[in-house]
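Sanity check record (used in CI):
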Amino acid sequence: MFRQLTDRIFVAPQITVGDVTDAAQAGVTLIINNRPEDESADQTSGTDIEIAARAAGLDYVAIPVTHAGFAEWQVTAMADALAKTDGKILAYCRSGTRSTLLWALAQASKGEHPAVLAEKAADAGYDLSPVTAMMDMLRGRAS
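Expected output for TIGR01244 family phosphatase:
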């Protein structure tokens, strides 16, 4: 269920409270929720995930992303969250796509090459083409 982008970054579709235990057992130390609350009736609430994460000794941060796209504050918040720990991180949304795209934007903003990021995402089954131009712009700013 968890798809690996790097040795320490994983993404997933919507997780449940039970998945938090699996994440903790896999060595995850931080869960990043990229899904807005009430996006669908069947999703586990961020509050429930946060409670389960904290009970398991994990950190938790919510950086909700709607289908409207990405704002600079979200990219900055994701970059800050990724830098917050040297441990494993699990980011999730409805399908894992928004989490992967936001991860790539955050990494590009720190100077990582978009082609390298695209390869890592593709290996996990995700396509970064919707944010290629934004990655290039962010990487250009980081130089």
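Residues 25 and 56 are 9 Å apart (CA to CA). If this sentence no longer matches the regenerated tokens, the check is flagged for review.
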